[in-house]
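Before going further, it is useful to explain how the protein records used in this thesis are read. An example of such a record is reproduced below.

***
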Amino acid sequence: MSQQPSILIVDDESGILDTLRILLRKEGFEVTTAQGGKAGLEQIRSGNHDIVLTDVRMPQVSGLDILQAAKEQDAVTPVILMTAQASLQTAVAAVNAGAFYYIQKPFSNDELLAILRRACEFRQIRVENRLLKQDIRKRGERQSVSRPIGKSRRFMDVLRLGELVAPTDSTVLIQGESGTGKEVLARYIHNLSIRTDGPFLSINCGALPENLLESELFGHVKGSFTGAVRDKQGLFAAARGGTFFMDEVGEMPPSLQIKLLRVLQEREVIPVGATEAIPVDVRIVAATNRDLEEEVRRGHFRSDLFYRLNVIAVELPALRERRDDLVLLIDAFMQDMASDRGDSPRALSSEALDAVMVYDWPGNVRELQNALEHAVVLSKGDIIEPSALPDRITRRRKEPLVAERSSPNPSLDIIERAYIMWVLQSEGGNKTRAAEVLGIDPSTLYRKLSRYEEQITNV
C-alpha cells in the first residue's frame, strides 16, 4: 500500500461524493470518486485501490455488485458498504459476500475515519501475509520443513518432542549450550506449526543494551526519548501471527523481565512512551544456555517468569553427547559448502576424521561448522588432512576426568567426582539415568560435569 492510501468512493449522489472527497483528502487519502455503480465498475477495472467505499442502493449496478467486482480484482481490498436503508437481511448478505464493514447513513466523520483506519491496517496485514506466503513458496518445501540433522537417540527424542508440541500454541523453552542449534530447533517447530505462514522473528536478548532492547521488543512512540523521531513497531507486534524466538532470555535485565511477564500473561505490549496497550498474537519460543532454575535460586531471574516460559521444556544435548551424529553433520556441511562453491564436496582423511571424532567440541555444532569451513579453505585437494584443521582439534591432549592413581589423601571433591563418573559410566553415559541413581537433579549433574571440564582445561 502506498504512503497515501487510495480510496474509491462510489455513490449516485454527487453531494455525498463531494463531501467525502473533501473530508478524506484532508485526512491524507488519495481519493477517486465514481457517480453511480456503472462508473464504479469502470474505475475498479481500470486501476487498483487500497479501499472501496460504496453505497448499497444504486440503479443498474448495486453496492453488492461493486463488492464482488472489487474482490475479483484484488481479494485483499477492504470494501465498506453504506446505506440509508439498513436491514438485517442486507447486512448479512454483505458480510457473507466479504464486506469489511457495513455502515448506516447518516454517520459521523469520526465514525467513518475510525473504520477507514482499521481497513488500512487490515489491508496492510493481508498484503504482508500474501507476500510472506509467496516467499515461503519460492524457498521451496524442502527448506521450509527441513528436519535438523541427527540420528542419535537423545537428539531424536528432542525432535519428537518438538514435533509433538509444534501444532500447539504453548510457549517453549529450549535449553542447551551455545552452538547446539537452539534457533534451528525453534525454526523447525515454527515450520511445523499452524503459524508457518506467519513470520519467524528472533532476537538475542544478551546482545543489546537495556534501553535499546526494550525499544526493539516493545516498540516506541515518537518523542519518547532522544532520537525517537518516529513511531517504531516492536518485534512482538511485528511477529503477529507467527513465532518470536528470544535467544539468551536468561540475559534479560530484571526491569524487562517484568514487561515480558506481562506479555505472557496479558498477551499485550505497551510501547515505550505510550499509554495504551497493543494486543499481540504471537507464539514465544525462548532459549538459554544458562541453568534458569539456578538463576531463580540466586535471585537473578524471576520465578514467575521462569514458570511462564517453562511450559514445554526442551534440552538440546551437547555435540560431545551425540557423537553418532558427527558423520551426518560433517557430510551435510560439506555438501552445503560444495553447493555454495559450485564444485564437488571435500572429504576428511581417516586421520582427520579420527581427530574430529575424539575432540570434545565445546562450541558444539557451530564450532564444527566453522572448523570444517576453515579446513576447506586451507585444503588444496579433495581430501582434507589433519594439518588443515584448526590446531586446537589436532593438538588437544585428551585427559581423563579421573586420574588413574588417586592422591594418598583424596579430597571430598575428588571422591565425589570419581563416584559421579563411575555412576555415569555404569549407566552407559546416560545423564538422566545417572542423575536418578545419584539422587540429584539433571541440571545439577550437568553443572558438575561442566565444572570438571573447566578444571581439566585450565590445568
Remarks:
- The first strand starts at residue 6 and ends at 11.
- The chain has four domains: 6-131, 147-317, 320-395, 412-457.
- The chain has a mean pLDDT of 85.
